[in-house]
Amino acid sequence: MNAPNFLRHGFSILSVFTTISLLAGCGAPKLPEPSVSVDQLAGLAYGPTSEQFEEPAGVKVAVSAARLDDEWTVIRGIYTPTEAGYHLYSKDMPPEGIDETGRPTLLTANGGDVIQIGSVLADKEPHDFTQYGVTLPVYPEGPVTLYRLIRINPGATSVSVALTYMSCSAELCNMPVEGSVVSVALP
Predict the structure, then answer these.
(1) pLDDT digit string (tens) for 131-145?
(2) What's 106's domain CATH number?
(3) What is the number of structural domains in the chain?
């Protein structure tokens, strides 16, 4: 017995929509991250630097990119407080700080050309610092460099990078910067 025309067309349309929806979920497969050290990442040849400085934040940030291998790119952010005696907060701190004190130092790539976002490594180890009665993870006073592993679409020439940070001394804190976007040229 043959199915009526409307049923055959319905099944054909359903089959097409199912195929399209399954293909839409397909992208580049996730790859395992390469095992790298901060020393290896520091030794790469980085391209042109995009700089950001917002006066009330008291931190200069220089962001650049380098190829790690055929699949992975490294985004490097060098965060430098402009005044002596200031520290930055750990990348592992919650986004809203701890008890609303401090902000994490973050480097996040986003945009249509980003296929996969990998780990972030720091060139300094944080230590505990008590400020306003709250114990916070901070990097030693002075600059800190973050390295973010990403995979990008072939042919991409730049990537948008969102920066978050806050610098403080033992007595004062500068205004936080949250999600400020800079464009970084890709190698």
Answers:
(1) 778 899 999 999 999
(2) 2.60.40.1250
(3) 1
